[in-house]
Amino acid sequence: MTCQAFSSADSFTTLAGDSSALPLLIHHAGTGDCLPVSSHATSMVLGAKEALERNFEEKSKPSSQEIVRMAEGLHLEKEVVRVWFCNRRQREKRVKTSLHQGSFHNLAKESSTCR
Q: DSSP per residue over 5-26, as a string?
């Protein structure tokens, strides 16, 4: 079964019927499958990560259609690919910012010692 958006027919129950117990299980209408609700990161195979990295090097902000094609080719959900690209752009920005701040700090330190 593939994951789909929740509908009004989906019900939520806790484990062992305890209303304070976690994690919750999602009972999809029409199936006996129960999926745990979690907020952890999606794990993906190494080949998919490598393919996403290669695509990122070519184009860091792919169009919606390009994201759909990548997701289909890698057998991932479109949202997983979209979020991966958002996170990857943020990581790139963070690295560039820290490198810039580090070089500025080193430059300031050098100029203060070279009087």
A: ---TT-EEEEGGG-TT-SSEEE
